[in-house]
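Long-time lurker. I teach an intro course on protein structure, and each term I like to show students one example going from raw sequence to a predicted 3D structure in token notation. This year I'd like something fresh instead of my usual example. Would anyone be willing to generate the tokens for the chain below so I can use it in lecture? Attribution to the forum is fine with me.
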Amino acid sequence: MNEQKVFILGLDGATFDIINKMLEQGELPNFRKVMKKGSHCALNSTFLHHSPPAWTSFSTGRDPGKHGILGFIQMANNAYGLQLVNGIDNRSSTMWEELTNEGRKVIVMNIPMTYPPKPVNGILISGLDTPSLDVDFTYPKNIKQEVLQNAPNYQINLHLGGYLYNDKRKMKGLNIIHENIESQRKTVLYLMEKYPWDMFAVRFNSPDNVQHQYWAYMDEKHPEYNPRADRKLKDAIFGVYRKLDEVVGEIYSRLESANINLIIMSDHGAGPRVGKSIFVNEWLKDMGLLSQIGKENKSSFRRLLDDTKFFVKGKILSFFLKSIPPHIKAKLTELVPWAAAKTANYLRFSGLDWANTRAFMGEVEGIRINLKGKYPQGIVAEEEYEKLRDKIISKAKMLKDPETGNNAFKGVYRREEVFKGDCTVNFPDIVLKPNDLYYLSPKFFRRNEKKPGVYLANDTHWRKISGSHSQHGIFIITGPDVKPDNQIDAADIIDIFPTAFYLMGVPVSDDVDGKVLYKCFNENFVDSRKVKFKKSDTKTKSDGSDIYSKEEQDELMKSLKGLGYIG
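-- Reply from a regular --
Happy to contribute to a lecture. Here you go:
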């Protein structure tokens, strides 16, 4: 076979920690079958295992330093403000763009960082960065109508954030997640049978949804575990995996008979979250590196009043997000088009005294130095830059959880130590990789919360999440030339791109960072087929800041807050 087809089934956040446990109990027959007939291993995510860089590295085969996407929001150029990130910010070519150039047919569905949908030789349905179903989220445009006619309940973002604050709501939320799996299943089967394709790539977001919200119901070691909780809630995560096992079976039965390769993968794994956050800006303030306007000169009463106003605003927003059902929340967004779009900027930058601030947290991925010439009120001279970075890194490595003695961070790095590529200069100057149990917060303590020398504190997320991401996802591959019952060493998420192109006989761009996973294939196949390379096409930077209207920014920001990506 010179030209093989590849179907990539993405299961956002799926982990072998769950799959293997269920396999041991005799469940997941279709996962078992595919693994028995093919090769598998843990899949190493991007250095920061967040969905935007991980899915973009999956789709491009390149380091975030080359494609330029590190999170859902990023600092605006030459300003103290944040802007939403979308597919236009991707500086590298994707699988589907390169396959289009090679004349191959593609269908792409629900992959993050694909909005607005770009022309492809086939079909593209955009993913998590899509503001709502009211926009043109498909290419070609007429596919949108087909999708919604075939699956009227089709959703890209579920708008569950905050709504699932008690067990009764969690039961309703579980039904919504299962309905979403069914809508995505119907759409996949409809498209794969009606339209021609050489590569089909789809993402089911349900594992990530259910693991964030329901982990504590399953995990007896979790501090929020309730042995008296409803059995359906305890079984929530396992129930989603069972449903997805049915999806695997339906897809694989169609592929196996046609000798088509199937790759099952996830962008990261999953694990517990204990409700603690590292208050990075508070820590920088106590080191004398960040200053708030007038705080030192205000009376105790004025500081208390400021804290109370901030607290009340947060409670009002939290009440709004918790009390309104998902289907109504999306509609009501139009009434306050400015609210959520300003929330992230408010929480990070309100009241900062830039003329006396040397370092600050902008995006949750790290710390920025307030450098002269880069920011409007930058005060750090170029010759001071490295010394200041070294000081912050050294101090951050010593930061510990006072209750457990655990290090707050797995690692603290200069950005160029962990990313490579021309886009690295746009990332935070210092990259923070927290312990998986903790989140990073740009907020400040209220006066009555402040404890000297303590920067980790309970910060129960308003959407009551108890699960988080972990470094390793899943990789399973089966096909006519794949070794059966074969476990290989851990692969990287960037390896999927060149491995898929290798199977398809398509040249791989010479700046792709991933490698072909030869150990997955039979020796005679590897001996008969050599990977082909081509010179990469340069891709110019586009400014995606005006892609969204104010209403669309607000809707998407609200959805991302609901997922826990924006504090």
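Some talking points for your students: The mean pLDDT is 88. The radius of gyration is 24 Å.
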